[in-house]
Amino acid sequence: MSRVLIIGAGGVAGVVVKKCAMLPEYFSEIHLASRTVAKCEKLQAEVGKDRVVGVYQVDADKADEVADLIRQVEPALVINVALPYQDLPIMDACLATGVHYLDTANYEPKDEAKFEYSWQWAYHERFKEKGIMALLGAGFDPGVTNVFTAYAAKHYFDEIHYLDIVDCNGGDHGQAFATNFNPEINIREITQRGKFWENGEWHETDPISVREDLDYPNVGVRASYLLFHEELESLVKHFPTIKRARFWMTFGEQYLTHLRVLENVGMTSIQPVDFQGQKIVPLEFLKAVLPNPGSLAEGYTGLTCIGTYVTGVKDGKEKTIFIYNNCDHSVCNAEVGAQAVSYTTGVPAMIGASMMLQEHWMKPGVWNMEQFDPDEFMERLNKYGLPWQVVECESPFKR
Ligand code: NDP
After folding, report:
1. Which of 114, 200, 212, 344 has the fewest CB atoms within 10 Å, i.e. is most exposed?
2. What spacing in Å lies between the alpha carbon of 182 and ligand 1's midpoint?
3. Which residues form the Saccharopine dehydrogenase NADP binding domain (predicted)?
4. Alpha-carbon dihedral 204, 224, 370, 361, rounded to 10 degrees
């Protein structure tokens, strides 16, 4: 039985639904639920009722509501592509009903930007006892970058020492300022303090203060800034030989200027303010006035390049490899009507789900992507739209 319940109907969910719909051999039946049922109905109309057989309204902040829906649909797996705030209620619902779980981003409390796995890892024993599995962070970064690291460790090194994950969006959507995935989560991630792992401890940096100009294959040189990203936490735990792990993301000057102004005037704050007798969270309001990331696909040009530099030792010699994918915004739009950031997240979520349902990756408990054998997942990336390359190279980092 390979019936899935997908929760969320935003940019990433659109890709997951369409990719799952193309693969009846992995996903016999798709059910789709979200806060706004009209968005589910729209996706159902695009894909066809024969593939998305049921649509439902659900408030996934409420574990009981999700559990009731799971009892009604009886899926083998819940694919959570709503927001990180819903991770724990959906995991609670999976525990209550004995159904497997997958997501693409770690749980976030509403009132503080944390980006850490502690809450979800705390479910490990309960999932194990119940005989169900949770796969965490099955997007691109986290997700594919974790699998790239596991693949490098398995096939190219005896021991891995230095890890630099790089995320470049070399595309142009023609808007003055927009985020490529949920603006609230994206801006929370970028405006928090930077953090990297070195010699057994975390080191903090001011937000967007450490820069390297990196040359990305098929994109060119782009200013790249050190950020904290959640996969660093699980990777340094699961690969204890790592001496230093960092994450870099590209931002253009125009984007950073807008972000600075918004920050300076208080629009990126997650602390509620009083406005005409109501409590309003500035960042939530900002989200409401920014372009919907799903609407950026039309006319979006250029490539993304996301990958992992790994330096380590093989047969006593140090070497560096870069594993990466290039993804073209316009090709994604032609295939599934999405931009590349949604696509590079949705395709791995679909592949992760297929790996679980076919029991390539299946063990009770709560797991990160690098804890499984990477080979079949890497094959499926090539097969389902995210082909990757491996090159041996010099480390491009100055420090
Ligand atoms: P969107 O904002 O486009 O979509 C989120 C969807 O979740 C919307 O349909 C929204 O409903 C729904 N939703 C929100 N709250 C609830 C609720 N309480 N109950 C039910 N549904 C709810 O986000 P994206 O598609 O851009 O992102 C989806 C997820 O993917 C996020 O968790 C994001 O962090 C993650 N992500 C991961 C990446 C990776 O590489 N690992 C990269 C990019 C994103 P409504 O339409 O009513 O607002």
Report:
1. 200
2. 6
3. 4-135
4. 130
pLDDT in tens, 279-294: 999 999 999 999 999 8
Pocket test for ligand 1, best of 5, 6, 7, 12 (most atoms within 8 A of CB): 12
pLDDT class of 1 with cuts at 50, 70, 90: low
Q: At what angle do helices 11-21 and 329-336 cross, to 10 degrees?
A: 60
Separation of 70 CA from ligand 1 center, angstroms?
19
Q: Which of 6, 35, 341 to mutate to test the pocket of ligand 1 (most atoms within 8 A of CB)?
A: 35
- Ligand 1 atom nearest 184 alpha carbon: 2
Write 279-288 long-range contacts (CB < 8 A, 24+). Answer: 283/183, 283/184, 283/187, 283/188, 284/184, 286/183, 286/184, 286/187, 286/262, 287/182, 287/183, 287/184
**Residue nearest atom 41 of ligand 1, based on CA coordinates:** 139
Shortest-distance atom of ligand 1 to CA 292:
3
Higher pLDDT, 399 or 246: 246
CATH number listed for the domain at residues 144-336 = 3.30.360.10
Q: Where are the domains of the chain?
A: 144-336
pLDDT in tens, 292-323: 998 999 999 999 999 999 999 999 999 999 99
The answer to whether the beta carbons of residues 168 and 224 sit under 8 Å apart is: yes
Q: Judge whether 168 and 329 are in contact, CB under 8 Å.
A: no
Flag whether the pTM goes above 0.90: yes
Q: Whose CA is nearest to atom 42 of ligand 1?
A: 345
Instruction: Name the residue at shortest CA distance from atom 31 of ligand 1.
Output: 83
d(CA 356, CA 376): 12
